[in-house]
Amino acid sequence: MVPAVLATLLLLVPLVAMVAAADWQALPGHLTSPAAIDALRLSLVTSTVAIVFCLLLGLPLAWLLARVDFRGRGAVRALVTVPLVLPPVVAGVALRSAFGRSGVIGGPLLEWTGFAFPFTTYGVVLAHVFVSMPFVVIAIEGALRSADPRYDEAAATLGATRWTTFRRVTVPLALPGVVAGTVLGWARSLGEFGATITFNGNYPGTTQTMPTLIYVTRQSDQAAAISLSLLMLLVSVGILVALRDHWLGTP
Amino acid sequence: MSAAPARPLVADLRVADRVDAAFTAEPGEVLAVIGPNGAGKSSLLHAVAGLVDVEGSARLGDTDLLTLPVRERRIGLVFQGQLLFPHLSAVDNVAFGLRSRGEGRARAEAVARDWLERFGIADLADRKPRELSGGQAQRVAIARALATEPDVLLLDEPFTGLDVSVQMALRIELGRHLRDFPGIALLVTHDAIDALTLADKVLVLDEGRVAQVGPPAEVAAEPRTPHVARLVGLNLVPDGDDLMAFTPDAVVVSLQEPEGSTRLRWHGPIATLAPHGDAVRLLVHASPDLLADLTPAAATELELVPGREVWLSAKATAVSRYAARR
């Protein structure tokens, strides 16, 4: 009983304390400062673009993992979960090694095209895709696994190609999982800090997202950092409310 | 889409551990596949559809269906349990096959509505499958399979799980659609009524092999497997290379061993005893199991109860005798 209460308090008190410490008078000003608006816009844009890429790449991968029995499937599935447990800062270092200006892919890329990911908005999206992909793939794979494959067979007997079946039957039937994975991935991306700042630094307007802005603001202006944090808290709670039918409510 | 050309289906199918069966079906013909559970009936259908691994061939004219991918086989499969797409309305379910085969949305939907109309459920077009009763959903499932005008229509236990009254109505309705259907229909069923009312030809499957093929009346009159005999309510007794079939009401029940030299007598305990129409029907554990009908008065007089040993005999004139294998 006591540990349970302690656990609940441990989760609750910091959030309540943060709300209590908010300077409500100054809050509108904090949230409408040019730096805040830039960071918020960048966060929304990069997270959204990242989740689109996660879906484009992750949906087929989830389908493959759920429906096709290929050699090395277990290894691929394990690989997909790595970013979940990898410290984000390590993800940033790893991305540097691959896509940095002298990285395995980044080096040749820079040589041939003159383009490099680090310290650009593209780099932010890349880091977001890396950390969010597992959420999308795992949630969708789970949904595809629980969907009855006989519906796919029914579609095939009606003359549907694999692609038509995927588009018109498989994905719609797995839609709750797809939505859950998308929202979770988007939320993870929105809160992404370690990999982003390690890979891209912290340039206002190009790589400074909300979490990095909060981090640097806190060093000079605690009240502004709290205001920005409240906004992120609001978004998080909003996501929970949106997903409550999926995980909460039904124990 | 063009109407199915008149080509017979000549099949020789082998599904590992399940089916080893050869059969033919003519265009416009309804071939009922009957047999006990586990005889391989569904496997046979799924083999034609391409949903299980199969060896052999299934020639439709010059084409071997087994060499084609599922979606190119021009088959319509009505699944056990329907498998209507739960996220699509009735009309979209029926239109699915047409759309998959390249028909435009408007045209596909018009054809689909027309099919729903033919099944008398046009008013349910916009309902989702979960909002349909069992009989309605089955009509949608059959319409969905027929809408693509398949060469071969495969029906897997289409009446299973429906109320008896719904079954009868749907059976009559399906019979009408099957008469108009120019292609080949394979109907898997465990119900003798389906085979007798809907089929032009009956294929009896037993442990994956073809035990008997013939017109329904012939199969019903001279069954070659105990399963079919039971389905049509006949006693079936092997006798050398012959089989003997006789109706339960041709059986005489007595407590003493019948006199005379007839070989047509058996002995065993009563397993069950139940009303059957105006009569009382006994199931007797003789070798083999036999059915006997007698009047309630006679049953009372003989004091028949389950477990009681009785003698059964049949008049030779009431027994039909035929070769076990043809």
TrEMBL record, chain B:
- What start-end ranges are recorded for coiled-coil regions in this protein? none
Q: Entry's Pfam families?
A: ABC_tran (PF00005), TOBE (PF03459)
One GO molecular function term of this record is: ATP binding
Q: Does the keyword Nuclease apply?
A: no
Per UniProt, which keywords does this protein have?
ATP-binding, Molybdenum, Nucleotide-binding, Transport
Where on the tree of life does the source sit, at the highest rank? Bacteria
In this chain the ABC transporter domain maps to 1-232
Mop domain residues: 259-323
Q: What is this protein called?
A: ATP-binding cassette domain-containing protein
Q: Which organism is it from?
A: Nocardioides pini
